[in-house]
Specification:
The complex is a heterodimer of chains A (106) and B (116). Chain A has no helices and nine strands. With 106 residues, chain A is mainly β. In chain A, strands 1, 3, 4, 7, 8 and 9 form a six-stranded mixed β-sheet that branches. In chain A, strands 2-6-5 form a three-stranded antiparallel β-sheet, with no helix packed on it. With 116 residues, chain B is mainly β. Chain B is globular, with a radius of gyration of 13 Å. Classes of the chains: A mainly beta (106), B mainly beta (116).
Amino acid sequence: SYELTQPPSVSVSPGQTASITCSGDKLGDKYACWYQQKPGQSPVLVIYQDSKRPSGIPERFSGSNSGSTATLTISGTQAMDEADYYCQAWESGTAEFGGGTKLTVL
Amino acid sequence: QVQLQESGPGLVKPSETLSLTCTVSGDSISTYYWSWIRQPPEKGLEWIGYIYYTGSTNYNPSLKSRVTISVDTSKNRFSLRLSSVTAADTAVYYCARRAGDAFDVWGQGTMVTVSS
């Protein structure tokens, strides 16, 4: 099966830029999405089609995807951004999720 | 505003069949694809499968032998059946709308525990 690999954890200071990576074989040839999940809540789509933001998602969230790595970037990270983040892509009609990255803002 | 609501038993015995329903409000089920996704406690997300209003389905190969997803367009809802459950199937089960390559709307999730 297709695997997407994320770092288990990322730490960032408030106001700084956080980058979360997602690696997979030829991931750049697919569309990558990103979801934010806070404790006890359902996931929320924050980036789709590599770099597009759904309505209501702050501009500080951005994405890119090239080669074998997709990246979620949060500029000017705020305390409210502390959450788990999951990447997702499709391979042969099957949706695959990365293992998730816990973003800590400290 | 589209909303999804999962419903079904919170406790299922081992070897039995898990059955959940997702009711869609604020949108017709006859658009988009509709998915089930689960999350075991303290673990990541796992896609189970999707269905189109025509009844066309696609399932995660790892679960395919035990999964059935069906749709009831008259009631604007779709359902999940997972047979021969074990403790490994204990999870929060989400229904979600697939728009293009992304899951853009999610239900609140329902916890299902497999235990005797």
